[in-house]
Design a protein that fits this description.
Distance between the termini: 55 Å
CATH architecture of the largest domain: 2-Layer Sandwich
Radius of gyration: 18 Å
Largest sheet: 5 strands, antiparallel
Shape: elongated
Order of helices and strands: HHHEEEHHEEH
Low-confidence stretches: 1-15, 66-72
Strand order of the largest sheet: 1-2-3-5-4
CATH topology of the largest domain: Phosphorylase Kinase, domain 1
Structural class: alpha+beta
Helix content: 25-40%
Mean pLDDT: 78
């Protein structure tokens, strides 16, 4: 049975109403509730378009074992591949995305996969910025810039694959100074 919680425009953590609606929807999916997206759209008509766009991704993330929108990682060791890529481990996080080490299964090589953060998937401007970043990086050819191998969207998860560079992160180098 679907339940709807009440919420304010923004709680102490600065969460928006829409993020709270998504959290409720995710919790319902995690419980195994039968979800009728039309019911959610009628309850929250101001978010209908965004809910319909988000729903396939929420289903995919739930199937990947992700139980919370604020989860530390989109993928677990048991998760399904993302396209041609098997996720190995998380490498780092930025404002728009999370970078994972992955294996490109068809070629047997290690790559880095940048995955758009869930909240950014629902914001058309951030989604376009992510695509622009991938296109711009793919056009560059320089020994000090990692190459982009592919761009994709699978199960509502937007990503691009690039060369994996071994070494320390900028944060690790700064800590040493």
């Amino acid at each position: 049975m679907e339940e709807f919680n009440t919420y304010s425009a923004a709680d102490a953590n600065g969460e928006t109403e829409f993020e709270d609606v998504l959290r409720q929807l995710t919790e319902s999916l995690d419980r195994g509730d039968e979800i009728l997206i039309d019911t959610w759209c009628k309850r929250f008509p101001q978010y209908e378009e965004r809910l319909r766009r988000a729903f396939p991704g929420l289903l995919a993330l739930t199937q990947l074992g992700r139980s919370d929108l604020q989860s530390d990682s989109l993928f677990s060791k048991e998760s399904r591949p993302l396209g041609d890529y098997r996720i190995i481990r998380e490498l780092g996080r930025g404002g728009m995305g999370i970078v994972y080490e992955a294996e490109q299964m068809s070629l047997g090589r290690r790559v880095a996969i940048k995955v758009l953060r869930f909240a950014a998937m629902l914001d058309e401007k951030r989604l376009e910025r992510f695509r622009t970043e991938a296109r711009a990086a793919a056009m560059l050819d320089h020994p000090n810039i990692v190459g982009v191998h592919s761009v994709g969207c699978e199960r509502g998860i937007h990503y691009f694959a690039m060369s994996l560079v071994e070494g320390q992160s900028l944060a690790e180098i700064v800590r040493m100074i």
